[in-house]
Amino acid sequence: MEKRLHLNLLASRPPMAGGFQSSSKMKMGPGRKRDFTPLPWSHYFETMEDVEVENENGKDIFRLYCSGSHGPVLLLLHGGGHSALSWAVFTAVIYSRINCRVVAMDLRAHGDTKVKNPEDLSADTMAKDIGKVVEALYGDNPPPIMIIGHSMGGAIAVHTAAANHIPSLLGLCVIDVVEGTAMDALNSMQNFLRSRPKTFKSLENAIEWSVKSGQIRNIESARVSMGGQVKKCEESTSSPGVSNSIEGIIEEEEEEEVEEESNKKRMKEDDQEIKKESVFTWRVELSKTEKYWEGWFRGLSALFLTCPVPKLLLLAGVDRLDKDLTIGQMQGKFQMQVLPQCGHAVHEDAPEKVADALATFMVRHKFTEFKEGYLC
Q1: Concatenated DSSP letters for 236-276?
Q2: CA 356 to CA 376: how far, in whole Å?
Q3: pTM for this model (two decimals)
Q4: Checking DSSP bridges between strand 199-200 and strand 169-175, what pairing results, if any?
Q5: Cα(139)–Cα(152) distance, integer angstroms
Q6: By the number of CB atoms within 10 A of the CB, which of 109, 128, 239, 350 ranks highest?
Q7: Partners of 147 in the β-ladder
């Protein structure tokens, strides 16, 4: 039972039976059908831009979604397999509460970011990416930056802060990632990844799966976020092993030949129908990133505690706290808040609660102010 409570650090684990908690956005009237149509990024962010950074192997291009022009920067890092779009609804909410700028970034090999070496997902490389993007955006004089990361992105945020890749770092917020439970969860990660559908017949179908499986419990967030998790499959011009395999075969009896031809034709049609329907697949093959998992999370609690800036830890359940963090929290080394009735994708499931917690934290530390007219 304890094993099943461990969080999934790469892609959110579907909830236990009876554990689905609908957000207010999912409550529909009797007989009304839920809307799974995709929502565009422009409903939530003001701009989208690609930032070029120099690397040893050439130029890498990182996709960013941004809002705001003044105040501290909230630099948002998504979890494994997700994209910057997972922060869409949260961005709209936090931007309505405090004076800030938001920069949500597609990490290496995720979303629409294009890098020369997408296989290198080491914590060190990804943390350096963050520093390079900040430098490309702001030069030698970056504004105050609060770095916020979820799951894998939370681990990368800690590594980035600890390595001092952001000289103007104001604070650090980590969402639902703790070393102890993360390391335990890795043992069953491959089984979980194998249990997910490999393809979806449409983006709407992918959105529906994410909501009904509990991966994202907020239907609005799923409608904008899933587009960053899946992509269209590359179209195949033929069905290998079917149409060409019947050439040159001479049957002894004509009836057998006709029957086999009919079977081949039916198999070919079925195969083409499957290809036609299964047009979306995952953008990131998370199973292939396994060699980096331990490097993301081992030693994370100690690293988090040593970061000298004010720190906020947001968790979906108190069971996630490990020994180092329990002691650190008792010593007042960071602020912690548990947001119940959320899945692993806390900022997607309950964007208002996460925004409230973060806004209160930032105002308390005098990083910013509430917007005029906002009633907290």
Answers
A1: PSS-TTTTTTTTT---SSHHHHHHHHHHHHHHHHHHHHHHH
A2: 8
A3: 0.82
A4: unpaired
A5: 27
A6: 350
A7: 75, 172
Joined tokens for residue 292: 């980096």
**Which active-site residues does the annotation give?**
151, 176, 344
Q: CA torsion angle for 44, 47, 50, 53 (degrees, to 10)?
A: -100
Other C-beta atoms lying within 10 Å of the C-beta of residue 27: 9
Q: Give me the sheet containing 280-282, strands edge to edge.
A: 199-200, 280-282, 230-232
* 65, containing H or E segment: strand 58-67
- H-helix or E-strand spanning residue 149: strand 145-150
Q: Nearest to residue 78, comparing CAs of 155, 179, 134, 178?
A: 155
Tokens of 229: 């998790």
The candidate with the shortest Cα–Cα distance to 15, out of 185, 157, 212, 184, is: 212
Q: How far apart are CA 223 and CA 37, in angstroms?
A: 6
pLDDT per residue of the chain (376 residues) written in tens, 0 to 9: 333 333 334 443 333 222 333 333 444 444 467 899 999 999 999 999 999 998 877 899 999 999 999 999 999 999 999 999 999 999 999 999 999 999 999 999 999 999 999 999 999 999 999 999 999 999 999 999 999 999 999 999 999 999 999 999 999 999 999 998 888 888 889 898 999 999 999 999 999 999 999 999 999 999 999 999 999 987 543 333 322 222 222 233 334 444 555 555 555 554 454 445 559 999 999 999 999 999 999 999 999 999 999 999 999 887 667 888 889 999 999 999 999 888 899 999 999 999 999 999 999 999 999 998 776 6
Distance of CA 355 to the CA centre of its chain: 17
Query: How far is residue 64's CA from residue 325's CA, in Å, rounded to a whole number?
Result: 32
